[in-house]
Amino acid sequence: MKRVSDRNGDAVMVTTVLMLSIILSVGGKLVLDYGEIVGKEQDMLHASDVSDSMLSMRASMSTLLEAGDTDTSILNRITLGTYGNPYLGVARSSGRLVYSPAPEDFQLSVFLEEGGSETLLNSVSGSLVFESNNFYYIDQVITFQSGGLVLDEYGRCVMSEPALFEVVRTSSGWGVDLELFTLTGEHWSTSGIDSTPLTIGLDGYSEISRDLSAGQVVSMRFNGPGEKAWEYGIRSLLTGNGLIENVDFSVTRPSDWSSSSEYLEIDLTGMETVHLLTGEMEVRICSTC
Q1: How far is CA 145 from CA 84, 134, 241, in A?
Q2: By CB count within 10 A, which of 81, 87, 194, 217 is most buried?
Q3: CA distance 177 to 175
Q4: Residue 261: what pLDDT?
């Protein structure tokens, strides 16, 4: 009888161990699955946070430009990575920030055309690019170009935030108000996961206001990555304000979007006034902040 009792006890112990193994295995998988959900959500929210940080930078640029303040620097921050969760085994995703004032990376020129001749009102260039290195979600690229934000996701570019571009109704036509930023200074890049302090300063500015006569056309020409996103963004803004394509504005696409010698052109044909405020902005990493 004693031997039978021992065999029963062994059977109970084996069953208990098997049940615990199953519970731990299932529990571990649930933790991993939940961790992946948390990690993916963090990656997605981080992209939104980066966009918000860039819009905060744009607000700082506007503050300096509209005040004509070339003596003040405003501190901003962009967090390059996610915070993870060590309790759930959630890894931290990282990112890279590239500041490029080079015109070949992006250029927007505004012309005034009349009777076959044209006058350059101003030109802006440069980009600030955030490239994510996500652990859970797809990688994303968010680019600041002259105040607009272009999001590259799944290999498709969209304008997630339009530039400071306003079209207003006048007594007998339309007026256009543009606030644009050109990036100056030296090229730099940084990568990691931490919050990066950035200082923004105004190096110089220009303001042009014109009353337009019949036959004068405000022409905007775009060259560089994100042209398609700008086309869609500007067209949506214009039609959303009641302008009619091929009546109040027209769009000419490049035959080769990848060519640096061709550009996207958007002509505003029904404008009575144009106001163009342009700021030369320098963004630097703050080493003492």
Answers
A1: 30, 23, 22
A2: 81
A3: 7
A4: 84
One-letter amino acid for residue 238 of the chain: L
Report how far residue 214's alpha carbon sits from residue 248's, in angstroms, rounded to the nearest whole number. 13
| Residues facing 146 on adjacent strands | none
List of residues 6+ apart from 262 with CB closer than 8 A: 223, 254, 255, 256
Do the beta carbons of residue 271 and residue 176 sit within 8 Å? yes
Judged by DSSP in three states, 26 sits in: helix
**φ, ψ of residue 35 in degrees (nearest 5):** -60, -40
**Cα–Cα dist 19/220, whole Å:** 70
pLDDT band for position 22 (50/70/90)? Answer: very low
Lookup: tokens for 223: 């060259």
The secondary structure of residue 245, as a DSSP letter, is B
Structure tokens belonging to residue 99:
């500041």
Q: Dihedral sign, CA of 64, 70, 71, 73?
A: positive
What's the whole-model pTM score?
Answer: 0.85
Q: Which sequence spans correspond to the domains of the chain?
A: 2-285
